[in-house]
Structures are given as structure tokens and as C-alpha cells.
Amino acid sequence: PVAQDLAGVSVLISAGGTREPLDPVRYLGNRSSGKQGYALAQVAAARGAKVTLVSTVDLPAPEGVDVQRVETADQLRERVLGAAVDVIIMAAAVADFRPAKRESAKIKKTFDPAHPDDAPTITLVRNPDILAQAVQARGAAQWPVLVGFAAETGDAGHTVLEHARAKLARKGCDLLVANEVGEDITFGQDTSTVYLLRADGGPEITVGPADKREIAAAVLDAVGDLILVRRSV
Ligand code: C5P
To answer: What are the boundaries of the region Phosphopantothenate--cysteine ligase (predicted)?
Structure first.
């Protein structure tokens, strides 16, 4: 039997990469598998939480989880900002940009022999930062615990952890789950190592190398802790 430590807690989890349409048949997308979000949903539900999973991918629905399908960042934003929940976990890879215009008909190549290399130019516009907007939208009536994810690379000047600390401060969320990505440490692997960083000065925790289920459990432990801290204030 699994401890029901999240009983009575409502959680919204986003999963997968958003798809930003160019025309009725094409989109701009990314390689996010959605597996970490599904693992979070599965573990949270098993621990008693009421879970809504807003997903861009077609994976089997975890037991007891309400799955809502979306495609675009805009649709995801509506679900996230419209939710009245205790916890929001943004595991989705939200596209930073979308095509400025969604063509109503398929974009066609020309058959004009005088211009055999003609190709369209796609203009992009910025997508809203949903997590940042959720931080902004917090009010007295609804003050959810907000969790962000970050895929970081180290560079000459700063380590992954330093980049992650800066992102936590910039985003204003309560907990940031940061993992290192790079040429050898690719997306879609079965195990990874993550850092859990808390905005309240709580401990920085390293988890892994661990599979997505273990990482989910550690993230939810930290979320449970933050809920306890909040309730005791
Ligand atoms: O800044 P960066 O994209 O690395 O931040 C990642 C975190 O922010 C993730 O939790 C992701 O779901 C969220 N995000 C968002 N809206 C965006 C871009 C990222 O909510 N437009």
C-alpha cells in the first residue's frame, strides 16, 4: 500500500511538447516525450492526489487521472490559468515561439519553372510564459504551489546549478526541477540526474541517476513539504 500523503491535494500537471500550427497539416514542435509529466501524474494519483494531466501526447492515461488533451501553448495556458488547484507542475516543454500566422489552407510549393527554389519565410512571435503568468496571477483566494522544470547546460562561465538558481529567481516559482542536458546527456533517456531547488531557502537536493518514477516521487516529496510549510504559516 502506498502512503496517501497527498490525499485532499489537487494537482495540475502539464506534459509533452506544445505543437504550434503553421497550416492545417504542419506544426512546429519539439522532442519532449511527456514521460516525466505522466510519471508525476501516476505517482501523485497513487499517493491520493486529485490529478489533472494536461497533455500534448497520446500515452496511456495513468489510473485515476483526468487527462485533457491540448496542442498549443495558448490552449495549455487557458487550462493552467483557469485551474483552481493546490499545485501546478509545469513539466511541459512549451514552445517559446509560434508562427505569427496560421494559414487556413496548406502552404503549397510553386511549380513555376522560373522560380524552382522559391520557399516561404516563416515569421515567429513569442508565446506567453505560462509559468511566469501563473506566478503573476496568484492571489489571496488561490495561491497554488508552482513548480517549474528547466533543461540546462553548463558553460564556461556557469555551472548547471548556477543557471538553475538564476532561473528559479527569474521565474518566481516555488520549486525548480533542473536537469542537465547536452550532447551525451540526451532527451528521452530512461534515467537522469536532477536538482531540486526551493525558493524558500529549503535544501537543494540532488536526485539520481534515477528513473522518471523516482524523480517524480522526489519532486512530490518536496511539493508535500512546501504544502506543509504553507499550512503551518
Ligand atoms: O525558461 P524556460 O523555458 O527554460 O523555463 C522552463 C519552465 O517554464 C518549464 O516549467 C516550462 O513548462 C515553463 N514554460 C512556460 N511557458 C513558456 C515557456 C516555458 O510555462 N512559454
So the answer is: 11-233
